[in-house]
Each structure stands twice: as structure tokens, then as C-alpha cells.
């Protein structure tokens, strides 16, 4: 639990630039030192290097030093950063404490789904500044980030398309002005979602499209957030090697992000006009599974030659984008997915790749990302990338997997072909969605701040 100016606990965290006040303080950027005589944990923040990362590292280390309730002297951080950075510093401290204190999903020693008990420490942030509005939004963001992380961490034998749809419905019943609709096979067939159904063909679980709608300002253009919800990706008949199946339960991370973002905006009663479209299925081998060289018809009428069944994410997303435009009348599209392994090679875990032809949409999201510290990097999407997507198909309009390099860009070009001239941006989170076996719930903070 995190409170503001409610209590003064025995131990407090104070930010300092160096160890001049006490030579026992470890004088290393991001280091935390407990001085029991002072009842203080000193967190060293240096001007050199990323100071936000130093705060995160130091707070995590501080909890390791002291496992009881702690006060945080926010103003000591502001003396180092300046008052102009109040929002950045407050959000960094609040969000980090919220993540550290979150009770993570665990099945260790249990016969049923329960939570792993974290160190139950209460935090009180002490400050002379008015942070009520910042606290309101920070609390929502932390809650939704942790919610998405739990969705991501769910084992794939539990986390099926049917499970996630039922869970979202159950978890959002009490949220005012949030409309949740679940579409299944019947609706997908009615809309002609041949790509989505083609990916689901080998599964024993029914496909699910979870649609979350919230409108806090009807005058605003409607933004659709479309997320990939592949609950496990075996690769289909183009079967992945065993080493590449590690982490494939996280292939639904885009869906977790878009749903959690809209849920958060509804909870905050934000002035936003949004719809999330989460495309849930798994990608398996089965006697009905789609074969390589099959030709499928998309919801918008384009035919797609399946040159690789492991390039399934762009298929479900294409139908999701068309649904958002034609059925939900979206004015602009933000799409997010763990789409290509090539992106992880290009940017690693340092940044999320962004692809768009719309400068206004890009500049708006990039500006917000500087404040949320969720790094974005704009990648190229040239005419020749689309030309290769078209030329790679012998029998269809498009190929879902062209030969050669630039796999992230050709995948983005494929998706852009379904945007119907609407402002469109694609985020490839293959390298940033998770780390060390845990979900990161990446870009929820950025989308939330951009849309609110």
C-alpha cells in the first residue's frame, strides 16, 4: 500500500548525491545504504547516467535492506532533479514502489491458482508539494500494469482464449461506463474473419475477441487499440524449435496491454474515446490446422497466402484492425504485438520498435514516452517493404511471410495494408514484453497518458 503524507515510519528513504554527509554511505549511483543510527536509507543519485534508472534500482535495493514499513522523502529527490521534474520523479517513485510491493502470481507448492506472498511493506511518500492529481493517475496506472503482468504470467495451460475472455468479463463487472463484449466463432464467421479463424483452426479452444469500450468525451476522435492475443505460439505446421518456444505464453502481451489501458481509462473517468480489440487464440498443430501454402480470405476481402504458419500474429491482427475500423468506426489505430523475432535482434530489450507513416501520431506518442520512460524507436516502413509482401504471394494478394531480411518492416507493411488510410501505428514489443520469466506490461503507461 502506498499513501501520501499519512504516516512517518521509523525508517525513511532519503536521496543524496554523494556520501559527504556520512562516509558509511556507499557512494555508487543507485546504491542504497541503511544507517541504523540515523534510521535512514540513503539512496545515491548521481548526475552522470540515467537518474530514473538509479531511482528504480535504489528503491528495489532499499526494500531488500529493510522489510518493514518505510517513509520516502520525495522532496530530497526533487532537490537533485528540480521541482520542474515533480511529475517525473513522483511517477517514478510511486510506480516503482507499486511494482516492488505487488504480490506476484505463483503456483509454487499450491494445488490451485494463488499469489506468491511478497514482503508486505507499506510506503508513505512525504512531500510538501500537491500531488493529488498525480497520485490519482499513478494509482490507476500501477494497478493496471500489475493486472496486465498477472495476465501475462498466467501459464498457458490455464491461460486459454476462453479463460482470458471469462476473466476480463468477471474482473470488470463493477466498472462504470466500461462496455465489454466477447465475440466467438459465430461472430468471426459472420464478419468473414478468415485469417483469425485460420490461425485458430488447429486449436481445441474456441477463438475469442474481447472488445472493451469506453467514452469519456464523445467529441474526441475514437482511438482503437488492437492487441495480439496468441495465448501460446507453437508455430503451427512451421513448428518452432524447442528453444524458440520459451516465452511463447507471452505472445498475448499486446492483448493484455490494450485491455488494461482501456480499463484504466474507464476507472479514472478520463476524457478519452477508446475501444480495445483483443484477438485471443492459440496457434497449434492439429488435424484441422492451416497448412503452409494455404490461401485465406481476410475480413476486408484481401486474400493472404500462408507461406509460414509461424507468422500468425499479423493474421489475427489484420482482421482485428478491420473490425475496429468497419464495426467500431475507429478514427485512428494503435496496434501492439509481440510480432517478430527480428525486432528483438534489432533493438533488444532496450526499446520498442514503432512503425508508422503518420508523423502526428508518432510525435504525440514519442513525446509522452519521454515522460513515462518507456523507450520507443521509429523504424522504417518503405514502399519496397509492401512491394515484397505483395510479390511474395503466388496465388494470394499478400504473403504473410516474405523471404529475405527486414522481417519486422515487412510485417509492419503487411499490417498497414489493412489500415484503410486511417492514421495507424504499429508497436513491435517482441523484445520488451517480458524479461526473466515475468511480464513487463510495456506501454500501458504511455498509452494511458497519451489518451487521457
UniProtKB/TrEMBL annotation:
Entry keyword set: Aminopeptidase, Hydrolase, Protease
Biological-process GO terms, alphabetical: proteolysis
Gene Ontology molecular function: any one: manganese ion binding
PROSITE patterns hit by this protein: CYTOSOL_AP
Occurrences of domain Cytosol aminopeptidase (ranges): 308-315
Domain of life: Bacteria
Gene Ontology cellular component terms for the protein in this record: cytoplasm
Listed InterPro entries: Leucine_aapep/pepB (IPR011356), Peptidase_M17_C (IPR000819)
Keyword Kinase found: no
Transmembrane segments annotated in the record for this chain: none
Record's function text: Presumably involved in the processing and regular turnover of intracellular proteins. Catalyzes the removal of unsubstituted N-terminal amino acids from various peptides.
Family: Belongs to the peptidase M17 family.
Name the record gives this protein: Probable cytosol aminopeptidase
Organism, as annotated: Mesoplasma corruscae
Amino acid at each position: 500500500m502506498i499513501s501520501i503524507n499519512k504516516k512517518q515510519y521509523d525508517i525513511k528513504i532519503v536521496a543524496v548525491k554523494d556520501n559527504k554527509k556520512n562516509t558509511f554511505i556507499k557512494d555508487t549511483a543507485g546504491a542504497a545504504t541503511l544507517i541504523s543510527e540515523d534510521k535512514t536509507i540513503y539512496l545515491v543519485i548521481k548526475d552522470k547516467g540515467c537518474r530514473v534508472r538509479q531511482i528504480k534500482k535504489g528503491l528495489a535495493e532499499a526494500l531488500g535492506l529493510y522489510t518493514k514499513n518505510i517513509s520516502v522523502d520525495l522532496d530530497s529527490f526533487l532537490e537533485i532533479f528540480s521541482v520542474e521534474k515533480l511529475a517525473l520523479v513522483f511517477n517514478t517513485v510511486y510506480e516503482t514502489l507499486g511494482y516492488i510491493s505487488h504480490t506476484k502470481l505463483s503456483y509454487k507448492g499450491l494445488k490451485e491458482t494463488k499469489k506468491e506472498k511478497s514482503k508486505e511493506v507499506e510506503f508513505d511518500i512525504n512531500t510538501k508539494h500537491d500531488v493529488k492529481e498525480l497520485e490519482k493517475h499513478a494509482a490507476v496506472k500501477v494497478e493496471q500494469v500489475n493486472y496486465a503482468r498477472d495476465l501475462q504470467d498466467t501459464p498457458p495451460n490455464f491461460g486459454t482464449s476462453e479463460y482470458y475472455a471469462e476473466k476480463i468479463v468477471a474482473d470488470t463487472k463493477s466498472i462504470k461506463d466500461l462496455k465489454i463484449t466477447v465475440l466467438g466463432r459465430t461472430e468471426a464467421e459472420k464478419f468473414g474473419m478468415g485469417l483469425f479463424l485460420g490461425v485458430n483452426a488447429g486449436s481445441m479452444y474456441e477463438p475469442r475477441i474481447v472488445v472493451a469500450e469506453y467514452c469519456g468525451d464523445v467529441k474526441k476522435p475514437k482511438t482503437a487499440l488492437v492487441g495480439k492475443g496468441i495465448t501460446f505460439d507453437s508455430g503451427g505446421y512451421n513448428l518452432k524449435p524447442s528453444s524458440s518456444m520459451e516465452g511463447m505464453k507471452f505472445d498475448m502481451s499486446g492483448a493484455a496491454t490494450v485491455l488494461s489501458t482501456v480499463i484504466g481509462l474507464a476507472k479514472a473517468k478520463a476524457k478519452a474515446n477508446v475501444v480495445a480489440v483483443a484477438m485471443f487464440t492459440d496457434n497449434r498443430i492439429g488435424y484441422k490446422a492451416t497448412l503452409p501454402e494455404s490461401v485465406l480470405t481476410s475480413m476486408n476481402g484481401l486474400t493472404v497466402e500462408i507461406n509460414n504458419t509461424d507468422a500468425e500474429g499479423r493474421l489475427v491482427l489484420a482482421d482485428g484492425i478491420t473490425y475496429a475500423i468497419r464495426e467500431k468506426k475507429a478514427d485512428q489505430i494503435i496496434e501492439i504485438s509481440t510480432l517478430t523475432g527480428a525486432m528483438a535482434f534489432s533493438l533488444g530489450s532496450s526499446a520498442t520498435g514503432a512503425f508508422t507513416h503518420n508523423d502526428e501520431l508518432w510525435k504525440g506518442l514519442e513525446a509522452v514516452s519521454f515522460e513515462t520512460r518507456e523507450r520507443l524507436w521509429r523504424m522504417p516502413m518503405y514502399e519496397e517493404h509492401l512491394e515484397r509482401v505483395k510479390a511474395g504471394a503466388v496465388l494470394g494478394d499478400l504473403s504473410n511471410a516474405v523471404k529475405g531480411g527486414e522481417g519486422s518492416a515487412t510485417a509492419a507493411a503487411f499490417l498497414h495494408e489493412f489500415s484503410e488510410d486511417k492514421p495507424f501505428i504499429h508497436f513491435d514489443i517482441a523484445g520488451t514484453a517480458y524479461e526473466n520469466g515475468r511480464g513487463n506490461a510495456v506501454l500501458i503507461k504511455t498509452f494511458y497518458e497519451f489518451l487521457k
